[in-house]
Amino acid sequence: MVRKMLTKEDAISAVYGGCILGGGGGGWIADGLEKTDLAFALGNPELITVDELQDNEFVPCVSLVGAPSAKEMYVDSDQLVNTIHRMKMEFDKPIAALMTNENGASTTINGWLQAAATGLPVVDAPSNGRAHPTGSMGSMNLSEVADYQSIQTFAGGKGDKEAAGSITGTLDLTSSAVRSISVQAGGMVGVCRNPVDTQYIKENAAVGAITQAIELGNEFLSVPEGPERIEKAVTYLKGRIIHSGKVNEFQLDKTGGFDVGYVRIDDLELTFWNEYMTAEKNGERKGTFPDLIMTFDVETGKPLVSAEIKEGIKIAVMSVPKENLLLSSTMYNQKLLKTVEPIINKSII
């Protein structure tokens, strides 16, 4: 069993490693670094392995829900902590720890601030080891549990857009409602949702994926800014660069709280639904979600989320087979993956 007192250096590595594992989504590096400062101003959160939990203990998932490109999004520290307190009131069993919903620049360290504020540890088992667009994809296949009732608490926005509360219902209903509320709240809300027991985490979560993000970030940051950082990421993940070049065309539409669009670099086309979904070169598929597809600035090596892409910039595109990632059981659920297809008008299954 391994217990680790997390440091600010761990968090910075987790932000960069998480950004790469975000696959185009999972939030912005600047937001992740800001959350790092806020978290460690409150204290040092602790990371535990899932083996340190008792069989009858419960862990909720903490998440940010919304569109990364939203201009009016606002979620502060008090709102994030409020979702934990509200969950403790709504859920009838003790909360033993917190888990994040996915790896991403802003999402890998989801829960670290709440952990520092409440004294609860963070479990090294995100709901998913890569970023994904929908709440159901971060639900560890609770969508397959008959008559499952989801509990979600949320808070975000400021001024006349501020919203906070809780909702109970089916997983689809609660996830859709929170997504809709995130739009009304300016584009983003913090969420605490769906407490599950230890055995369920072991069977369905991405066990060890926080450590993977930190290790990847350590490798990435071990060399100076530049193309060598991209090589470090590719080597660590056993992936490949499928193309480098100037962005010829970029389209991003905000649809239902998501960023949806495509990127064209010479004869390579990427589609995204927050995260990159497909990569095709001359019609040949080079990567398909949940494979990891990620873009980097060619000159600095900085990982770029889909909402950061602009026409004219030079980028490198990495593809990593899903087998090289630590993933949730949801990433093998064809019903959930099928929902991607009508959004991007591409086959996924």
From TrEMBL:
Residues 15-145 form the S-Me-THD N-terminal domain. This is OsrF. InterPro entries: S-Me-THD-like_C, S-Me-THD_C_sf, S-Me-THD_N, S-Me-THD_N_sf. It comes from Oceanobacillus oncorhynchi. It comes from the Bacteria. Residues 176-326 form the S-Me-THD-like C-terminal domain.
